[in-house]
Amino acid sequence: MQDIVLKVNGMMCSGCEKRVQNVVSSIENVKEVKADHEKGTVTIKVDVNVNIDEIKSAIRDLEYEVE
User: Fold this and answer.
1) CATH number for the domain harbouring residue 25
2) In DSSP terms, which residues pair with 14 in a beta bridge?
3) Tens-digit pLDDT string for the chain (67 aa)
4) What pLDDT sits at residue 44?
5) What is the pLDDT of residues 5-23, one digit of tens each?
6) Are the beta carbons of 45 and 30 closer than 8 angstroms?
7) How far is the C-alpha of 46 from the C-alpha of 37, rounded, in Å?
8) Residue 61 · residue 15 · CB < 8 Å
9) From the centroid of its chain, how far is CA 64?
10) CA distance 64 to 2
């Protein structure tokens, strides 16, 4: 298990956090997701076999910027 922290721009409220958490948590091998709009971060607990590009793409599909 490992933690990945992504910088995400554009989240403005708890509703934004919930949208990101719901989408990312549906990705295979993602175990836990915590979005924080005030810090502009998404912390993801994953198994080692996770595709980080898939996670970033899912967040971008919600029209947020991912660094």
Assistant:
1) 3.30.70.100
2) none
3) 899 999 999 999 999 999 999 999 999 999 999 999 999 999 999 987 888 999 999 999 999 999 8
4) 97
5) 999 999 999 999 999 999 9
6) yes
7) 21
8) no
9) 10
10) 23
DSSP 13-42: SHHHHHHHHHHHHTSTTEEEEEEETTTTEE
Q: CA angle at residue 41 from 56 to 31, to 5 degrees?
A: 65
Would you state the structure tokens that stand for residue 19, as one six-digit string? 């949208």
Task: Tell me which residue range forms the domain holding 15.
Answer: 2-66
The pairing of beta strand 65-66 with beta strand 2-9: antiparallel
Q: What strands lie across the sheet with 65-66, from one edge to the other?
A: 30-36, 41-46, 2-9, 65-66
Domains of the chain: total: 1
Lookup result for tokens 């997701």? 33
